[in-house]
Amino acid sequence: MNLSVKNRTLLFVSVVLFIFSVVLLFIIYFQHLQRLNKTEQQYFENTKLLYSKISKKYESFYANKIMDIINTRGIKESLADKNKDKLYEEALEKWNSLRNENFDLTEMHFHMPDGSSFLRMSNPESSGESILKHRGMVQEIHTNKKAVYGFESCRNQLAYRILEPIFFNGKYIGALELSLKSDYILNEMKYYHNLEGALFVEESKSLPKIDKKSRIKIKNYVLEYEPLSHKSIVNNLPANYNFETFLDLKTPDGSSYSIYSFDLKNFHGESISKVLFFKDITKDIEDFKSSMFNFIFLLIVSIIITLLIINFSFNKSIKSLESSHADITRYKNMINENLITSSSDLKGYITDVSDAFCKISGYPRSELIGNPYSIVRHPDISSEFFEKLWESLKYKKTWNGEIKNLNKYGEVYWVHMNIYPKFKDNVLIGYDSIMHDITDKKISEELMITDGLTHIYNRRHFNDIFPRMIQSIKREGGYLSFLILDIDHFKQYNDTYGHQAGDNALIKVAKILEETLHRGDDYCFRLGGEEFGVLYKSANEHDAYLFAQKFRKMIMSLNIKHIHNGPDGVITASFGLVSLKNDEILSDDAMYKMADECLYRAKNEGRNRVVSKTVTLANSQLEQNMF
Length: 627
What we know:
Distance between the termini: 89 Å
CATH architecture of the largest domain: 2-Layer Sandwich
Largest sheet: 6 strands, antiparallel
Radius of gyration: 47 Å
CATH topology of the largest domain: Alpha-Beta Plaits
Number of domains: 4
Strand order of the largest sheet: 7-8-6-11-10-9
Helix content: 40-55%
Shape: elongated
Number of helices: 17
């Protein structure tokens, strides 16, 4: 079905608005959901903090109370004398005061070092028996004589206990224990923070007074204490509930709760029971649903109004676009298919390319976009080249020149590139490039400057490059080295092994030279016959000499048999080297002559060696220093 530009535009806008609305709806939904989860998480963190604070408060408070009791006049003396009646009399006032302060306090208990119970303030008559077997905390304090805190279950009675050692005249004489009901923390949370909860105890340690038939059991835990105003919360806990740290629960009456689970730990840090706290989040859930409903309603109304405005307000514009749409599409396709263009961000990562760019590079658009331009960079193009390119863009804002590239299939192609800055609201956001293919031209040029046998540069290119490198060194500073080498006894080699073997030897030597040079501004040339030249930059004369020696050793390492080349028996070469600082260079002819003289010396001194000459400029006279 063919639709007009107007209808296609409206359809496109409708689809875009629909997709946008769905995406926006999901974003808003997940943002609200994250906010709700964050609120629930905050509830949990607050509850966790309150729980921790209350635990530490009781620990610190009753530890201080115990120390106050121990330091009360007569307490230590009575315990040391084992005067139970006197001890009861001395401690009674403190015991009554503590009981009146907190009804969750169930016991004040004095223990003897031998593990026997000396005095229970709640039942003074019950004492004397050894309790070490079923009271691990008592055994712990008698062993280590250090304070012990934590929950402990004893004879189906779970309690929070604080024990402090008692010393008299430097001697350990026993310990004092305060015990609180296990549900004290629930009472605190309810009374001070309006947080309801429930306490579950391992079934084997639960109170026998609980009716087994009516008890609520989850896993191997049973409900011990539940001061809840809504019984349905506990009754509706899932059967497979494993006391996860965080759980959302919805009750049959429609209420929603966040349930937080904490371990009650003994003095060893082992979990012996579970405490649950319940936070009513019904209002938060309802607010979330209401917000989403209002948003969806407003979104639908907005889409309808937007489509009506587009249809009526832009009707003429759409018709006008329809008449020029075909021409624009045609021109765009012509440009896209025939003009090599690309766009990049400020870091050089490709953001768009034309079909012509894809065609010449061999890469599909999906593999180009998001990658740096170096994806098509040829290894011959040095990092310095791109540094200068970016420097030019930074200061001149534009750049044009020739670049050697490598397509996906490893084939070389050349382009002439013009790079222009791209602005948005007067802010530079990237660069646009327009290129045209100059591969054929560069191939022709390459053939003109390349030696047909060895495929390294020829004498013609040497004559062009040498003066240019001298000018570059004079501008930038540093050392320029020229190395000339000649294969030893090459005529005899040709006569012995044949011209084809000679050609192969020349090719191998050229390959060694080419593979050893890694920088873009180092060059090697076949100057004629068996004579080669190398131009390279060096840090100093010594480095240049070591580099030349490397060439010499690598040529020997080819192990090309040559029986007429002295004791070595393999192909070798003689080298003449001249390395000059920028202010010492007179001309390319002068450097060539110096290197040629050194080569002559190398041959006369026995071949297979490097002879170097250092040249300095003083009073316009050329001084020579042979070494």
